[in-house]
């Protein structure tokens, strides 16, 4: 028995990583199918309906098609970086899921691959690094259209990253921690009304808009912009290299939805979780399973909203995006930080809501 326990302690983490990576791959394929179905419904046309029941196997057929396509690298381009860029995008997109808690364990800790005390800071750092994949792809292709797409992505990232960080900071003020697990648990104080979407709606709107821009999807898909840049940063990509960019986009869509759900919609917390735990007596593995299902449902809801927005709103012009980021989102996010800080201090001193918690910087 001790041998089995020792073996499990060695293989549990690699097994969890293996499962998460493969689940993300399957989820990306399902998101491609969902996007085609939703867009077809919005445009009143037939979606995929040939490969598999109701076209469900169409994304897998597309993968096989890309596998057998010829891989073309521009003669004057940089072959190594041309190959590195899509790999970098996929690795960063999947690595972000490591610090997101999927549920609470029976022992009181999080069900997560890496429980780090600065999980939110790590997520913001990883998403910022992902722009290097796009920029390197544009530069390595030695194409003016691709290079413009990469430069657009860099300017776009600077425009919304500051506002995203400020919106995330407003969440940290309530939680008093950068740990994703602590942020989720802090939303369990007042039941469903304790979710940050209710007590911090401005931060939610700003972060959700920035998360949409993070995925480089319409109306923020300026690095691609087919009408202006042919295909943008992946103009010179073909075969499975192009497929990896496609994969990274949909993994980013799912991860961005999961981060929004974790920060503002209670993460894995069940609606009225106190009723399930205190009245119905749900606990242990059953509660953990229900929390995982809840997180998936919340994430799927935001993923649907992102798809809905893509097929509803037209693309922003470049100057409109810059104005939105610098003149509106950033000032609103900074003002929201001051408002939330005043609310937290008022609740701390006036009502003792955060009794037993320290306020960093004030020595309290």
Automatic annotation (TrEMBL):
The keyword Transmembrane helix applies. The gene is nuoH. Signal peptide: none annotated. This is NADH-quinone oxidoreductase subunit H. It is found in: Cell membrane; Membrane. NDH-1 is composed of 14 different subunits. Subunits NuoA, H, J, K, L, M, N constitute the membrane sector of the complex. The keyword Cell membrane applies. It comes from the Bacteria. InterPro entries: NADH_UbQ_OxRdtase_su1/FPO (IPR001694), NADH_UbQ_OxRdtase_su1_CS (IPR018086). The chain crosses the membrane at residues 15-34, 84-104, 116-139, 160-181, 193-213, 250-270, 290-309, 329-354. It catalyses: a quinone + NADH + 5 H(+)(in) = a quinol + NAD(+) + 4 H(+)(out). Keywords: Cell membrane, Membrane, NAD, Quinone, Translocase, Transmembrane, Transmembrane helix, Ubiquinone. GO terms for cellular component: plasma membrane. GO terms for biological process: aerobic respiration. Belongs to the complex I subunit 1 family. One of its GO terms (molecular function) is NADH dehydrogenase activity. Its main location: membrane. NDH-1 shuttles electrons from NADH, via FMN and iron-sulfur (Fe-S) centers, to quinones in the respiratory chain. The immediate electron acceptor for the enzyme in this species is believed to be ubiquinone. Couples the redox reaction to proton translocation (for every two electrons transferred, four hydrogen ions are translocated across the cytoplasmic membrane), and thus conserves the redox energy in a proton gradient. This subunit may bind ubiquinone. It comes from Rubricoccus marinus.
């Amino acid at each position: 028995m001790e041998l089995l326990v020792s073996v499990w302690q060695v293989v549990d983490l690699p097994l969890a990583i293996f499962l998460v990576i493969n689940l993300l791959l399957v989820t990306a394929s399902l998101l491609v199918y969902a996007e085609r179905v939703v867009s077809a419904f919005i445009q009143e046309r037939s979606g995929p309906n040939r490969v598999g029941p109701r076209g469900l196997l169409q994304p897998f057929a597309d993968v096989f098609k890309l596998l057998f396509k010829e891989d073309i690298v521009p003669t004057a381009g940089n072959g190594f970086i041309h190959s590195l860029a899509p790999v970098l995008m996929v690795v960063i997109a999947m690595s972000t899921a490591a610090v997101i808690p999927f549920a609470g364990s029976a022992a009181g800790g999080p069900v997560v691959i890496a429980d780090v005390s600065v999980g939110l800071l790590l997520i913001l750092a990883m998403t910022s690094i992902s722009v290097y994949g796009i920029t390197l792809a544009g530069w390595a292709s030695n194409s003016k259209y691709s290079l413009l797409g990469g430069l657009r992505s860099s300017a776009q990232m600077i425009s919304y990253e500051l506002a995203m960080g400020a919106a995330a900071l407003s969440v940290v003020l309530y939680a008093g921690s950068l740990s994703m697990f602590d942020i989720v648990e802090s939303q369990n104080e007042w039941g469903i009304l304790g979710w940050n979407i209710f007590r911090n709606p401005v931060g939610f709107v700003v972060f959700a808009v920035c998360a949409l821009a993070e995925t480089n999807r319409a109306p923020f898909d300026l690095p691609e912009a087919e009408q202006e840049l042919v295909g943008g940063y992946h103009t010179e990509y073909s075969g499975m290299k192009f497929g990896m960019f496609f994969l990274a986009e949909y993994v980013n869509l799912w991860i961005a939805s999961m981060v929004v759900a974790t920060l503002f919609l209670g993460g894995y917390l069940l609606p009225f979780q106190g009723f399930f735990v205190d009245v119905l007596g749900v606990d242990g593995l059953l509660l953990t399973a229900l929390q995982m299902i809840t997180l998936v449902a919340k994430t799927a809801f935001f993923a649907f909203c992102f798809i809905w927005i893509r097929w509803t709103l037209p693309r922003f012009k470049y100057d409109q995006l810059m104005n939105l980021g610098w003149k509106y989102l950033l000032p609103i996010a900074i003002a929201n930080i001051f408002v939330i800080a005043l609310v937290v201090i008022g609740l701390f001193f006036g009502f003792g809501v955060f009794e037993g918690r320290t306020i960093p910087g004030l020595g309290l």
